[in-house]
Design a protein that fits this description.
The structure is a single chain. This protein has a seven-stranded mixed sheet with strand order 1-2-3-4-5-7-10, with helices on both faces. The chain has a three-stranded mixed sheet with strand order 6-8-9. 46% of the residues are buried. Helix content is 47%, strand content 15%. The chain has 13 helices and ten strands. By secondary structure, it is an alpha/beta fold. It is globular.
Length: 269
Amino acid sequence: GACFRARRYCQAGCKMTEPLVTLDVNGNAAVIRLNRPSRHNALVPELLTDLLDALDDERSRNARTVILAAEGRSISTGGDLLGFWQHRDNIADYAQQLVGLLNQAVLSIYTHPAPVVCAVQGQVTGGSLGLLLAADRVIMMRGVSITPWYSEVGFSPDGGWTALLPDVIGRQQSLNWLCSNASVTAEECLDMGIAHELVSTDAFAAALAWAKQIAGMNKASIESTRSLLGRNTDDIRQGLQAERTAFVRQIQTLEAIDGIAKFLGKKKL
């Protein structure tokens, strides 16, 4: 498989011995895997840059379907708080970069020429929910949990929690989920429409089966259907940009910096 990693170190201080994102082709499906399992695939600028490269690669753009998956126990646990902590002296610039790249990734998944199915295991926290919300189909392992964490740490929501989630579950339910910082189960995600299929053993195998099913359908019909059901991307882009602006403003506060420190178990500021 291809990788998109030339740097030896990521900005969160981790030495890179493996590619952060891989791209392989399995039949008619392009398989994109997040590959930072030691940090639960937490988001750093380098991983998101490589994810964008994979989504833009002609092998994924020319595929009949794209499977977005991840190595390790969790698909992704949001922005890496260690990265924020290590960049606390220029945290606004770092947050602008990270959330900007996340927004690009969300839009790239949402507007991808091929249907995208997301295979989900473990925990999903913070802005990584946007990767699921942007996909055409979400297949979850039983035992998955999704938790916002914003109100606990002192951040403002990003990754589509306000730009995309209300389209799926409604404004009030989105508001209550974010404010309560509740952990939502895979079964609850299925009921709410965030997930479309639950499996007990292998989410990737189920995603591959769906990809093979889609490959047997009429391509033009699927393309037309996705286009007709798609939201105006300018509206989504504006919503994501509003999230980014609020996130950067909030993360500079002492409350947010203190929340990062406490979450990481460091000395209280």
